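= Paired protein data =
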Amino acid sequence: MVDSGPEFSIGEESGLVRLVRLCRPTVRYWLETEVHVYALSVAASVLLSFFPFLIVMVSLCTYVFHWPAMASAIYLSLNDYFPDEIGRFIARNLKVVVQSRGPMQFASIFLLLFTANGVFEPFEVALNRVWGVRTNRSFLKNQIVSLGLIFLCGGLSLLSFVLTAVNQDFLTKNFAMEADSLKWILPVLFKLAAIPASILGLFLMYWLLPNRSVPVRKMLPVAVAIGLALELLKYINLLTWPLLKAKLQKEYGPFYISVSIVLWTFVAAMVVLAGAEWSAREITVARQDASPDLEQTP
């Protein structure tokens, strides 16, 4: 009975030490200058491609599919990702732009394809470095892979909007729900569709971007964990937004919305890169443990 207390504390200490040991390499990875360059490059490209992406999505829903509920799901996602007046500001200007420009948004499609490639290019270089790949793809091959990921991830986003719209139409027609009731149910339905879509998008990126084959089964749990971490990051943004907004407005004036998008995208990119670093490190350690007879040459 006397020794049981110390044994319990030792177990707790060993678990804490193990957690620190697992996280320490990731923290060191975060402190590397190159990682900051990759994340900032991704954040800048997201800022450039964000509004053209919204224009293309809303134009498809409005002028191609003629599905108002699907367009409303996009505006719902803006309110879910952006706090208070930022979401309303973006949604209001998005409606004006789409209505004023009409159905053919070739300029937005071109800008989306051009700038979205800038999102995946630094990710490929960063993932190659994580996996120990010394040779990146050629510019042409990188553009082809990036273009494929643009359509895949865009299709997943569109699918989440479709599922939300289908559920909205189903509840409205079969249960005669009014706007006040749907206001509380639709965000839940959107999350049920959007979170799996974002996890699948992360998995495709982890799997397809490195210029080498990666173990598919090992990447799926990492994509799930990072997808949930990004969802948690969104709520941290919502909780800290009043303080951050006041600070950004003082420092950046009317540009505080763009700066907030860059800052939080930078943090999200760091989280995504940390997931890749952790998975590559764990797989490397597992392979070394599986081959203990391999000796290094002195």
In short: The two ends are 50 Å apart (CA to CA). The chain is about 85% helix and 0% strand. Residues 58 and 112 are 14 Å apart (CA to CA).
